[in-house]
Design a protein that fits this description.
heterodimer, A: 163 residues, mainly alpha, Four Helix Bundle (Hemerythrin (Met), subunit A), 7 helices, elongated, B: 249 residues, alpha/beta, 5-stranded parallel β-sheet, globular, phosphoprotein (chain A), cytoplasm (chain A), nucleus (chain A), protein histidine kinase binding (chain A)
Chain lengths: 163, 249
Amino acid sequence: MDSHVAQLQMQYRNYILSLYQQGFLDDQFTELKSLQDDGSPDFVAEVLSLFFDDCVKLVGNMARALDQTGTVDFSQVGANVHQLKGSSSSVGAKRVKGLCINFKELCEAKNYEGCVRCLQQVDIEYKTLKAKLQDMFNVSVIIVHMNPVSVWDDFNKIILGKE
Amino acid sequence: MARDGGVSCLRSSEMLNVGLGGMESPPLDLDEVHVLAVDDSLVDRIVIERLLRITSCKVTAVDSGWRALEFLGLDNEKASAELDRLKVDMIITDYCMPGMTGYELLKKIKESSSFRQVPVVIMSSENVLTRIDMCLEEGAEDFLLKPVKLADVKRLRNHLTGDVKLSNGNKRKLPEDSVTVHALLPPPPALTLSTDSSDSSPPLSPVEVFSSPLSSQEDDDVLTTSPGSSPTPEESMGRRQKMRSPGLD
């Protein structure tokens, strides 16, 4: 095996492991990965893409709800937090989910300052995760491109270590 | 499919056209399970649809209780024509949904003459005992904690295959019979970074998924139960135990 590919492969694995170790991902992400196969090779990418669309939408809703000049409808904010908590949980976005748990409590306490701060953190967190996962996918694509043989056979051989 | 609120459906009239009673096996598997999935979250719909497809169910996914009732033909007072009755073998629904909750949907299904026999499974991200009890008392077949895993769906599927293969007459067990609570300890946390080789039952550690061979051969025919692909009894019971213990998030 080409040593460049082997090196990239190792970096890729280490990168993914670090995402788990740093708490970006949890075992639900592993579960999603295990649902992907040759017949559905884009499953994880598709789910993640929908998740990030959700993030944009829900963060927008929350920002608008918190931006009311009159009384803030905390139950409205809370409803959006609940949705985000759900989808982050379903994709294994551990840090985002953790923030949503705090956020929910802040909504119940009607803590305006706390909610605004938490929303900012959520915004940063999902964007950070998105960037990291994008890096991960980019590396996997590069590795696959280095070997012109059948794309998915190669993916399995190199990335997953199948012989 | 799941994005626009649901596409595929099987009507029993269509299935009858497929040569029931013929000598050769019909192109459509009459044992094929059709599941109606209800969840307002698109992400969750995609995931549950995938989980169900992997366990060889046909899936119709809708985004609300109202759409589910509409799909089942229960949204108006008039009874649907008997001949065109849908073949729905299981309904799996989220609990927290705007408009109509999963509990309200469950009640409506249990009130209908056409579909009260269909097992209804509730999914929820919240482990609230009173909620669980309420749903089970209303006749829910099972209660799954989100995020739902393949092991959960496989367990449901295996359970369902047993029911579907019996006569259409008395296939529905009483709720009390089908719900058991096992006082076993929950399984240890799923995420480990050890390199212990495991069988194909979840959970897989990230090391195993990303560096060791995925058993993709099995994935291709995961349709029939293959060795090791069913959840261990401890895991199924463990998740049920997780459901029953207050304070676990």
